[in-house]
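Retro notes (design track)

What went well: tokenization of the new backbones is finally stable.
What didn't: we kept losing track of which sequence belonged to which structure.
Fix going forward: every design gets posted as structure first, then sequence, in one message. First example under the new rule, 313 residues:
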């Protein structure tokens, strides 16, 4: 009589998907906040129950077997379905008392959220947000896999499975060292940037590609040999005279109160901006509430940061 396998547990599916995404048992254990032996035991039990190997370990890391690759997408969909089921049950039984996972880019979250979360909590006393930072492309991927409930990402996002509510437009400021030839000018012309050595973040950041497009459009030189790991690092590189940079308006507003070593100016006639929006899975049970959150966020940003950004009406 053929062996009948038992359905895998939610925990086993979650462990399977996390190891696949991290390509490492150790990193997956850290992400899941469990011990590596416990993680290994659950995967071994899953493999034994299914009767197939899911992972191959070698010196380069942990790889999915062909069988594992075939099952991975099914596991992701099952996890997403269970999470949305639980979220829907919470909405029915408790209202908005659930903890929602919010993803934000590292070039935005630290300079936006401290200004808006207290007021958002005042409007929704039962709302809890678990905030994590990641690059926008990873946020969108994790959102579709159910690892985030909502995210604030750069626009545009044109996907049928993602709902989008625009929030605001943020200017990018042009920053130079205090001894630079353009220091002291409230505005600079696009032609004055031609040939300038422009610093930016590492290529994994969406901000890097936006600055790259600006340089190509204005005839400036993107400094690939010197790329910052964060906006603070980028700022310090400008102070040290390694080049000039574009910095987000919210960062300048939040972190540069006494920029004596730097000069901040605007680009005349061609202001440079980036757009941000709140996104979620189109199938999410709480999608009506997310639209309400987007409306509240716009109102709070307009009240507290209306002099820095332009809020969508």
């Amino acid at each position: 009589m053929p062996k009948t396998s038992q359905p895998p547990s939610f925990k086993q599916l979650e462990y399977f998907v996390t190891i696949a995404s991290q390509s490492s048992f150790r990193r997956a254990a850290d992400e899941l906040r469990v011990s590596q032996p416990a993680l290994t035991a659950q995967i071994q039990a899953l493999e034994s129950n299914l009767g197939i190997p899911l992972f191959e370990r070698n010196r380069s890391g942990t790889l999915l077997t062909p069988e594992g690759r075939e099952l991975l997408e099914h596991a992701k969909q099952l996890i997403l379905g269970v999470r949305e089921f639980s979220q829907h049950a919470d909405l029915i039984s408790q209202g908005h008392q659930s903890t929602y996972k919010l993803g934000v880019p590292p070039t935005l979250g630290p300079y936006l959220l401290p200004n808006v979360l207290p007021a958002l909590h005042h409007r929704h006393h039962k709302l809890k947000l678990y905030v994590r930072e990641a690059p926008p492309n990873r946020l969108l991927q994790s959102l579709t896999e159910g690892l985030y409930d909502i995210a604030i990402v750069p626009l545009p996002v044109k996907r049928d499975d993602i709902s989008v509510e625009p929030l605001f437009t943020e200017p990018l400021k042009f920053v130079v060292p205090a001894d630079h030839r353009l220091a002291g000018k409230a505005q600079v012309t696009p032609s004055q940037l031609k040939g300038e050595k422009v610093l930016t973040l590492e290529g994994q950041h969406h901000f890097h590609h936006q600055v790259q497009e600006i340089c190509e459009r204005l005839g400036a030189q993107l400094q690939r040999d010197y790329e910052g790991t964060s906006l603070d690092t980028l700022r310090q590189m400008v102070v040290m005279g390694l080049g000039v940079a574009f910095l987000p308006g919210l960062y300048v507003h939040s972190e540069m109160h006494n920029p004596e070593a730097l000069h901040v100016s605007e680009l005349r006639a061609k202001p440079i901006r980036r757009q941000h929006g709140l996104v979620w899975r189109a199938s999410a049970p709480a999608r009506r509430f997310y639209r309400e959150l987007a409306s509240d966020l716009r109102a709070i940003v307009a009240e507290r940061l209306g002099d820095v950004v332009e809020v969508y009406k």
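Added context from the reviewer: The chain has three domains: 10-79, 95-167+276-311, 169-273.
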